[in-house]
């Protein structure tokens, strides 16, 4: 990966400008402003962009998303209850396909990495299955909250009821999770720290493989300024036979990702023979014009010789983010599970 021309500011693991100083360490994140955009508003007209992830409202919404009591998040009988406990379901998928987890009958074993961890919900859930887990996110506000959650085990957060009326609730890490197994750091998913890459192979292949048994990137790809740059690094994160779990709703928006770097969700230009021209984008698509699917680009990148992965499983993973008592974002992410080949460039 090489640095591209300066991209727009980004969050959830992407590049942005100069960081501000760290804020305080209050266990209760209050003072929300109704003018701050909700992370549950993701349509083309929602505005926002990466700066959203540094706001108090984003931190509070994600604390509820990751740690809120399901009965507080969705108190209605007729709702999408299968979309709750999203972070737990992501972590369980990593464990399901990781051999070090299956072969360890006593204590958790292996090393896991949660990229785009936000406030750390899935990072803690991974600690049920792995001996050492690290969470990485570019948002300083998110990482500060995650570290506080590790230290205290629970945090107060503020959520909207309606209009400007709020209430305070508590989110907590499951008591059965050993928080000492978990650590958090700020980092850029499009240019990962060198300490995370390589070092997992042997002989001449030492740097072709990584040291991790499992890597999770949940709802991250479509919030990066250069998702292809992230995918290009994945082979060097995982040991031979290791598992990469990608989860994404493919909600491409130019506020986060320049359009020429979207992996999919755009129309392809027609070629001279009437087919579609690979990689060519149409500014004025005809009715029923072919379009590029995000999964096709991911599959091409990861299953190439340089990519170094084989597809193991794919399914749908619903999630639910609460904006206020009677408004939610219900989404269905595409979950794909990939296994690192044992021979580099195979």
What is the overall shape? Answer: globular
Task: Tell me the strand order in the biggest sheet.
Answer: 6-3-2-7-8-13-12
Name the quaternary structure: single chain
- Computed over alpha carbons, the radius of gyration is 20 Å
N-to-C CA distance: 20 Å
How much helical structure, as a percent, in the residues?
A: 10-25%
- Are there runs of 5+ residues with pLDDT below 50, and where? 1-11, 15-28
The beta-strand count equals 13
Would you spell out the secondary-structure blueprint of this structure?
Elements: E1 28-29, H1 56-67, H2 70-73, H3 86-96, H4 99-103, E2 111-115, H5 121-126, E3 132-137, H6 140-152, E4 154-162, E5 165-172, E6 182-186, E7 212-218, H7 227-233, E8 238-248, E9 266-270, E10 276-281, E11 291-292, H8 294-303, E12 309-324, E13 327-340
Parallel strand pairs: 1-4, 2-3, 2-7, 3-6, 7-8
Antiparallel strand pairs: 4-5, 8-13, 9-10, 9-11, 12-13
């Amino acid at each position: 990966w090489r640095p591209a021309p300066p991209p727009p500011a980004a969050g959830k693991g992407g590049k942005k400008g100069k960081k501000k100083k760290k804020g305080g360490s209050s266990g209760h994140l209050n003072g929300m402003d109704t003018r701050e955009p909700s992370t549950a508003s993701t349509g083309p007209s929602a505005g926002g962009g990466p700066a959203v992830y540094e706001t108090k409202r984003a931190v509070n919404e994600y604390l509820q998303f990751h740690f809120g009591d399901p009965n507080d998040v969705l108190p209605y009988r007729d709702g999408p209850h299968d979309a709750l406990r999203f972070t737990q379901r992501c972590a369980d998928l990593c464990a399901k396909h990781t051999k070090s987890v299956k072969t360890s009958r006593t204590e958790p074993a292996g090393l896991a990495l949660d990229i785009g961890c936000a406030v750390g919900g899935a990072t803690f859930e991974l600690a049920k299955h792995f001996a050492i887990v690290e969470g990485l996110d570019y948002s300083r506000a998110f990482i500060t909250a995650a570290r506080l959650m590790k230290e205290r085990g629970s945090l107060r957060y503020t959520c909207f009821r309606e209009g400007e009326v709020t209430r305070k609730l508590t989110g907590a890490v499951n008591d059965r999770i050993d928080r000492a197994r978990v650590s958090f750091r700020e980092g850029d998913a499009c240019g990962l720290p060198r300490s995370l890459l390589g070092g997992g192979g042997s002989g001449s292949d030492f740097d072709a493989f990584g040291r991790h048994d499992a890597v999770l990137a949940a709802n991250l790809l479509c919030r990066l300024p250069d998702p292809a740059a992230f995918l290009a690094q994945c082979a060097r994160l995982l040991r031979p036979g290791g598992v990469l779990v990608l989860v994404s709703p493919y909600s491409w928006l130019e506020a986060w990702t320049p359009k020429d770097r979207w992996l999919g969700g755009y129309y392809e230009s027609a070629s001279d023979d009437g087919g579609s021209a690979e990689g060519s984008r149409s500014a004025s698509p005809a009715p029923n014009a072919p379009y590029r699917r995000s999964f096709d680009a991911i599959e091409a990148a990861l299953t190439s010789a340089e990519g170094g992965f084989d597809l193991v499983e794919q399914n749908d993973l619903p999630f639910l983010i609460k904006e206020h008592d009677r408004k939610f974002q219900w989404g269905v992410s595409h979950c794909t599970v990939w296994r690192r080949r044992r021979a580099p460039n195979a």
